[in-house]
Amino acid sequence: MRTHDEFTQDLEPLETDAFANDRRKKARTTPTPRLCYDWMIVSGNCHYARDRGAFRTYRPVAQLIKNNIFNPQQELAVAGVGTVELQVCRTSKDGGRSVHTIVLEDVLHIPEAVCNGFNPLLYGSSMSCTMEVWEGADRYGEPVWFAVPFAGGTRLVLAGEPRGESELIQGMYYTLSLSITPQERREILGRRLNDIFVMCLKNSDSEGELVNSDRRESDRDVFI
């Protein structure tokens, strides 16, 4: 089956390489007035979001990754990384009436993406799939999220069914699962991981001081 990139190339046969590159650069940097609420179920090893406005916490980065699933001719720009909170419906069994919030960590901001990617393997939940619905549960078997078919894939059902901008075309085939290398992950998340490491060291030192203090108190008790 033909890919989205091949379809786009056929629609724009007169587009020059220079114009195409300029258009892609604008797509990466120009904010979209309407958010994309298409959170598609993906595999790979990361979550990603198209819009800056989707993030609850955010840290800008300037990183290119080699695996560009949206435009294989170029490297893929990651503009930032952060936390995304999604109001989702827990289960299809109650018609989606039960709602709660899931928090996604280390979500990549990819302005070039045609949608958002939710990777259930990174959320720590089990998953069951049928032709009509995909459902995720926590380790206790309680429902956490569900998704339904959309544009050749499977889309997370958000509370209130918000309407925004959608670039996905029904009947098209898309490659949406994104993987980054360990080196790319270190470069993107390095500062945050380093901060966590430093904090852990400080906590460890503090606990060590408390233990030593307790030991000194205990030693005094012995000599008394």
TrEMBL record:
<dbReference type="Pfam" id="PF22936">
    <property type="entry name" value="Pol_BBD"/>
</dbReference>
<feature type="domain" description="Retrovirus-related Pol polyprotein from transposon TNT 1-94-like beta-barrel">
    <location>
        <begin position="43"/>
        <end position="116"/>
    </location>
</feature>
<feature type="region of interest" description="Disordered">
    <location>
        <begin position="1"/>
        <end position="26"/>
    </location>
</feature>
<dbReference type="InterPro" id="IPR054722">
    <property type="entry name" value="PolX-like_BBD"/>
</dbReference>
<protein>
    <recommendedName>
        <fullName>Retrovirus-related Pol polyprotein from transposon TNT 1-94-like beta-barrel domain-containing protein</fullName>
    </recommendedName>
</protein>
